[in-house]
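Ticket #4471: complex job returned nothing on first submit. Input attached below:
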Amino acid sequence: MKSVIADNLVKIYDKGKVRALDGLSLDVEEGTVLSVLGPNGAGKTTVVRILTTLLRADSGSASVAGIDVMKNPEKVREVIGLSGQYAAVDEILTGYDNLVMFGELYHLGKKNAVVRANELLERFQLTEAAKRPIKTYSGGMRRRLDLAASLIVKPKVLFLDEPTTGLDPRGRQEMWGVIQELVKGGVTLLLTTQYLEEADQLADDIVVIDTGKVIARGTSDALKKQVGGERLEVVVEQAHIAKTLEIVGAVSGNKASLDEGIRLVSAPVSTGSAALFEVLKSLDAAGIHALDVGLKRPSLDDVFLALTGHVAEEKKSEVEEKKKGRK
Amino acid sequence: MSAVNDVLIITRRQLLLLSRVPEVLIFSTIQPVMFVLLFRYVFGGSIETGQPGGYVQLLMPGIFVQTVAFTLAGTASGLAEDMKKGLIDRFRSLPISQSALVIGRTLGDSLLNIVVLAVMGIAGYIVGWRPSSGIGSVALGFIFLLFFGYALSWVGVLVGLSASDARVVQNVSFIVTFPLTFLSNAFAPTTGMPRALQYFAEWNPVSTMVAACRELFGLENQFGATAGSFPSENPLLTSLIYMVIIMVIFIPLSVRKYRNYAD
Ligand SMILES: Nc1ncnc2c1ncn2[C@@H]1O[C@H](COP(=O)(O)OP(=O)(O)OP(=O)(O)O)[C@@H](O)[C@H]1O
Ligand SMILES: [Mg+2]
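Support reply: We reran it on our side without changes. The output follows.
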């Protein structure tokens, strides 16, 4: 059974100037995790807000746990949990106060709300910070509390909008752990992210979206195959480019490509470090000194490049910065 | 009934916030008390009123009304703050009555007004304010004040939900509130104003509220209202009509704005 269905959603902002969603469709099978992967401005938050009844679509339809989102928003709110892109908890109140208040709003009654708050604080390792105002929490603690608030009553479908954006690597790891726990417990989850790695770690299925449309969908493996797996990259002096193209092409079995500006020769490889070793050996035999050599795992940028032929809009400048840095 | 319960939980949150940030309560009371002292001692000596008991008798109702009028700003900035934090999204995604949050906030702000009015009343008493009507009338006056603050709180809800930025909210609220409180009979007679402003001042809800309170506190002097005009003859009724009009217009608008927030 499908727990979430979005069919041909359109959302237009600013009197037609921005088509945030442009006929977006997706679905989530009950008990599975779907990751919506896309760059800044792709429409991730917009689709989450529509599915969680916070925003009305201009056209299209959607249902959550079999309930029509447009016709019965009150019923939908009873079965969902939402942790938005920005932690939505009361900064001035303590973690404990927040959870008790939300528990009461879920009609648990004061006593049960207190019990549940303590359980959740314990589970998300916030017991020590329970009596401190949220404004003293770190970004990771805030996100965990926000997640806890969305789990007060076990939701049938959970929505997480970029749960790890802005967290440091440790915070991200912790958050992944927490989410994996939930997934093991059998929750149906729709999660948005900008990181392929995150989708890879957490999701059964991935839909890639860009400018309000789905541009690819599949399992993480299938998508990576589509992108072409790992790439071997070598940077050499101008004089050695021709020869290097030849060597890398031979090892890869595919035609190597060249980024002239930064003298980067690259080609897809399937044998990982063995290919790396082979290339190094051949370069050495040819008397070529490589300035930089490496294997690159496909990133969201590569997915985009492969799927759309362009780098994700807002990320472009960042990628160019990186390239400049390498020069 | 669960809707009532939801509202009460939100109202309690409001009080909890006050207890966590007592500065808010302190400053919301210090400012009006300061006004009482400043007007009483700085201007009080130079304003000739012919009022037995002195200027302070006329002043206190004016400051009471001015203070509750600023509930508009308080509600607006509180809501804007909640929106900025994304908190409104969480409330709106909960299975609760969709207007609970805004109703709870307006009630919470009225509770704050009770405290502020009580402190001001005491401060007024200390500097010589002595309402000459009975206890019942005085109590009715305070109920009127609370009700007026409550009505304006709903205007604040709309301002708070409409503005894009919490700082804008402050400015918009002040731009609405300041002319209303000063183009009135609250602090000085309207008779000195140009004719057009006099008309405005006379029909201004702040003036009718001030006149109504003066009446309920046992004062004769209506402080400059043109004799014979409807608002000056019937300040209580006019004020009541204003409050009802404000609520009839702004409650549905605000609730609708909240439901469709961000659309
Ligand atoms: N309230 C709004 N008014 C006007 N345009 C908006 C509004 N909200 C979103 N947009 C636009 O709609 C598009 C999709 O925005 P959305 O927030 O859904 O993207 P996103 O994928 O969540 O991005 P991010 O990764 O930055 O969170 C963007 O172009 C954005 O500028
Ligand atoms: Mg977003």
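Chain A has twelve helices and 14 strands. Closing as resolved unless it happens again.
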